Amino acid sequence: MDYKEEFISLFNENVKRQGAQELIDWMLKTDFFTAPASTKYHCACPQGLVMHSLSVFNVMMEKHFEEGKDSLESFTVCALLHDLCKAEFYKVSARNVKNDETGKWEQVPYYAIDDKFPYGHGEKSVFLIERFMRLKPAEAIAIRWHMGEFDGPNGFSVSQAYEKYPLAVKLHLADLESTYLRERNTSAVNKK
After folding, report:
1. What is the number of helices (H) and of strands (E) in the chain?
2. Number of structural domains the chain divides into
3. Most CB contacts within 10 A, which of 57, 85, 139, 186?
4. What is the pTM of this model?
5. CA–CA dist 108, 11 (Å, integer)
6. Which tens digits make up the pLDDT trace of 132-169?
């Protein structure tokens, strides 16, 4: 099973709310399943975004899911959709780089940001999801604040969000671990 199939299977198995299929149908029309997760930091490769989303789900389940206390549906929604804002966000471009061996300049591909709807990061994901499917308040807060302090100078707001919604803390921790510990060697445009 490839990343796209795994994502869709997990989503369909765990998410049963109204609008879920319409959301998946829309995602299939975007580059979500082929896009990178970043320009150069983590999963900067084809399918990197879906790889990262699955990694965040796995970390959340392994490290933070408490049977009887947490909702598998909410964990699935948050982990798999937290970076939906990155669909249709990157483009492959080219730049000149000097080849150290030949001394000649060569064009090499790289990912550039091409944000056609600059609405923020977490809030853009929430907006896109809610065009199709309603989020629970804890899910919306978790997705909005999954970047923590990396998402701007909103320390008081993020602190309140984390205090009130443990799901937000769990998503943030899973995103950090996936990005900085598990995905360190997935940053090349040409990887397949």
Report:
1. 8, 2
2. 1
3. 139
4. 0.84
5. 36
6. 999 999 999 999 988 776 656 555 577 777 888 889 88
